[in-house]
Structure formats: C-alpha cells, structure tokens
Amino acid sequence: MDVYEIRDPAQARRHLLTGLVMTRTAVVDAHFAQRALTWTLELAARGDPLPPVGFVADVGQIALGLEIDPTLRDGLPVVSGFDRGLVRRYDDYVLGKFYVDQSFERGADALFRYHGRDQVRALAFFIEHLRQRAGFGGALLSPAVIRTLLHAPPENLLSEAWETVEQEGVSQSLVDDYEELTSAIHNLGETLGVEDVFELEHGTALVDFGQRVALRQILQAAEELVQQLPRYKPRPSMRRRYVATNILDEDAYPVGGFSSISNRGAIESLLHSQLAYMEQDQRPDLFDVKFLRDELLYYARDENHFLRRRQTFIFALYPDLAQVRFKDAALPWQRIVLVLASLLAAVRKWGEWFSEDALLFEILILDRNQLAPEEELLRTLFRDQVQSGYVRIERAEPISLPPRCNDYARYGHCHYLGASLTPHEPPSERVFAAQLLPTAAIPQFFLDQEPVNLRNETPLDAWRRFLDRWLSTSIP
Q1: Are the CB atoms for 145 and 25 separated by under 8 Å?
Q2: What are phi and psi of 124, to 5 degrees?
Q3: Which residue from 11, 53, 264, 272 has the highest number of Cβ atoms inside 10 Å of its Cβ?
Q4: What is the pLDDT of residues 127-164, one digit of tens each?
Q5: 103: buried, middle or exposed (CB in 10 Å: 19+, 13-18, 0-12)?
C-alpha cells in the first residue's frame, strides 16, 4: 500500500486538477467538477489516504447512477501521458467490476437512503472502506487546498486543469496510483465486506465511532463463527425429546391435491360440468333438485396435512455480563462481542436449518441500565427481524422466566440459553436448557447442567466449539 504526503500546496493543486480530468465515467464540465471535488473534500477531511480524484468521481458516478452511457466511453479524451493500455485495464478491471459486483450494488442501493450532506458522508465511507479492503494507498494532503478549489470559478479550474496536463503531463505518482488500484481491485473478491454493507443499509455508517467499531466487530466475529459451522442441518441428537403440545389452527395446512370425486364438498370444488343442469327460465331446475338431493359432484381433496412445528429460542442476558467488556490477549475480540456474535450466528443458522418451522427468537435483557449499550447494539443488528416479529428484544425480570418458558413449551419446543458469570437453575424442566459462562477466554458451557469440556481447544476454537455443540444438541 503506497501512501505518500504532498505538503506543497501548489503541487497538491496540480495533483487534484490532473486527477479530476482523468475520470472515465462522465464528461468533465463545471457541474461535474464541483460534485467530484465535494466528494473528495469529504474523504480528505477524514484524514485517510486520498485516491485519485478521477477514481473518486468514477465510484461516485456509478454508485449514484450518474455515469454516462458506457458505449460512449471510448469517445472520452485520454489524458496525455496516461497510457492507453492502463486506461483499458482500468475500464475493464475496475469499472467493469463495479457494474457486476453484488456487494457494490447493495452498497450503492443503500446510498439512496441518505440525502443531502449525509449522502456525501456515506459515499466517503463507501469509498474509504473499498480502498481499505482492496489494499491500495493514496495521497495525504490538506483539505484546505480542496476548499480553495471549490471556491474558485469552475470554468477557470477546468481551463487550468487542461493547461496543466498539456504543459506538464500526468505526474508519475498519479500513474502509480492507477496502476496500484487497478491491480488491487482486479485481484479483489467482493468490493465491500459484509459489515460495510450492513452499516450502509442500517444507517450506522454515520454514527459515533465507538458504536460503529462494536457493530463491525460483532459482524466480523459472527461471520468467522458461522464459517466453521455445518452447512447443512446436523442429525438430531440421541437426547432427542418429544413434548406434548396443543396444536393451534394456524399450524396445520392442507397439502394434498384432488384425488377423487365425491357428492359432498365446497361450492368452489364443484365440477364445472354440473353447471349444465342450470336452466335460465325454469326454477326449480335440475341443478336445484340435484343440489337438494346431494347428487351434485365435487372434486375431493386428499386429506394430507402439513404440520408446522413451533420452536421458540429464549436468550437471557444477565446484568453481570457488563463485567466482560474487555479483550483477552488470546482472543481477537472482547468477550461481550463474542457473546453477542454467538447470538447473531445462532439466529442465522437456525433460520437456515428450520426455515419451514414457525420460529421465534426472544432476547431478554435482565437489567434496565447495565446492559443498555448491548441492547442498543442488538436492536441495530436485528432491526429488520424485530420489525417483522421474527425476533423480540425485551427487558424482563428473572422471576418472569419460568412462566414464560412454560407457556411457550405448551405449544412447541422451547430452547433456553442463559449467559451469565454465575450458574443459574434452568427456568423450567420443559425447556432444552443451556448455560454460557464467559468467565475466562475459554468459556464454560453447560447442557442440562452437565459441563461440556472445551479446555482442549484454543480460546477462539473453544467459542466455535461451544456454538457448534449448542446448535447441534438443540436439534429437536
């Protein structure tokens, strides 16, 4: 990653103006120059290495749907000193990738949720994390130089830019920047990470730095944990149990097709040929007679039914978890981050494995104040699921756990996980109970009050092992 500093204001001005006319997605005019420099200023104000202005403009143009017709790109002027082979590689490997990359498209769609200055800030977030993920550098220069350009007449800027290019050509530093970013993006997988897209879609890209770091770490940890889990649902455990349930009406669905003909049925199942018995001028007609005698014929449906299981997962977070907001030397993240990441990973995998079941996830915060930051993070992580009713996040008292678990166990399988630093009795004998005690880098884990040995694992592998055992033993 080549990062260099430009301290001379005159040199920084030439660098910016030369990069401006090197854009490949728009005809450089006064309006475009103002827009591109505004995006560049937002990036420079963050204090991060600044890619070429032309690249910033190209990303902004494509992401916001402002680029020109790609078929007209060959008609754009090529800046003197900018190798045509490099131009072709840049068009194919960089701009072409942006058009087909799914993560870029999702991030671009998320930008339209922002307006005004917020959209400019979100675009700066978009470009900076793309640069970090690809691993190319840029120039460090004073934002004051860009502000000076923004206050100058745009027509004068363009004249100065083209005059600079004609007289001095393109600087070697700009050519090196384009070579580096073209090679880096060509070898890149997805242009944006899962956590980058999540932040753009959920509006957290503009929140306080500390909250953003926590969100990104939880998402990264969850992704790391999920990758180690089985892709397909494991076989049920030998400790499989069956519970007596009261089946609700909405749990059963008819799935059989029409298998025979009967003289009883609903009017919508009536054979169309029976309508021939109707007569327009004579009542009662033969249709009425057959109807009264139950002699009309109906399609009869197979009596097979699909039974949808109800499964409820209750996660109880005790107040003493506030004491594990620190990072062990042997772990890449804080313990509380790994606890929340385990919940996120569990919801994802259970949603995949039991997609045909009626699932409900309840996250209970057993404290009003100490876990307020964690509650806010969880509401952000599960915002869409909370809105759809798939996940519930509530504050509760420990005394409310037994009746809540018993109520859910009446109608289906109920799974319970308590996360705390001290052991607690299971809230009910009718639930699949587990306990997580993150008292050290290697956590303690209990299934039905029986300890699970995780000591033979490295700390991070122990967390993976805990999640794998917890999920696999909860298969009903």
Answers
A1: no
A2: -65, -40
A3: 53
A4: 999 999 999 988 898 889 899 888 888 888 888 888 88
A5: middle
